[in-house]
């Protein structure tokens, strides 16, 4: 059977010879070979392997464009025929469409190849480790691992290939009272010691969930946001926060930052760190992606620009994908050691996770959401009791601005757990954040 790369190149080569003089095309390739293992009560309940490949074919002519997505069979002749049928269908479709005033194609014949072949752990070994550490516990979770492939080719001669191996174990430990600790271990390289340390922290937190809950009144409290909780906050900023389109139409939650009317804490530096990440170094539109400094020392820098925003606002596209949202977000760490977090917090909230976040005032950068899973009340640097679910409502210019005291030195790699249609390549590399105040509303 042909390799994924050979399969993609063969289709691109055929398409290059099939289009006529006034036609242009782009061809994007997506594939994976993934193990999926579901756990319940720390035992395997479902195990399977998914191998799939698809292409998205866009045809362009006379300022018009249309596209089709095709599932590939792996049989070269069958897949070539499917692509041929798609070409005929798209030619008919183009005659029915108006010209697109914001269509902007990349004419460069760029070349890109990135193959990350870090050996993945044997799934049987992973199962053994999970079963051993989770023995006697109510553990539920899903383990996903395997290579992800991305390709791009165009009539301009551009050609990109990306392969990255990764694993992601997303699990929860449930207490008999129904409370839970949620945890994650993900990356390129599995180590038994690294997993054991992450598991030990979750198990330690599980023990505290058996204590009577500490009641809190609405108000402002010192708080520590673990990386998974901070990811939810940062994730809200990615909903248009760095988007050239949103910034141009004044709907960005970071509008004040980019307009120069506000700053974040000097500790905050955020970047789109494509190099070395799981994300390909090219977009589905056919633009090479580069590392971008989005926020440096609390001040706005680059923005995410796709081809349509570039055409509409006279900007230069920098490889941003659909939605102009970061997919390889990296935040600089600070000077707070992990084993000093509780001491530095003193008295306040240790928040492991947040969920159900939304904007309460988008243009002002205000967000609201709920605490989730292992949130603890801490006194004098010691965990005392769990805290029932609470709602917060606060400004990003407080959370990452005036209220931010310090960031942890160690950062956690958080990979997207989405498997809708296919495994995703998005990731965040984030520290934990110590806050002087977080506003709880109910």
UniProtKB/TrEMBL annotation:
Protein name per its UniProtKB record: Metalloprotease TldD/E C-terminal domain-containing protein
UniProt xrefs under SUPFAM superfamilies: Putative modulator of DNA gyrase, PmbA/TldD (SSF111283)
GO MF annotation: an example: metallopeptidase activity
Domain (Metalloprotease TldD/E C-terminal): residue spans on this chain: 218-438
Organism: Pseudomonas graminis
PANTHER family: CONSERVED PROTEIN, TLDD PROTEIN
Pfam family, one: PmbA_TldD_3rd
One Gene Ontology term from the biological process aspect of the record: proteolysis
TM region positions: none
Superkingdom, taxonomy of origin: Bacteria
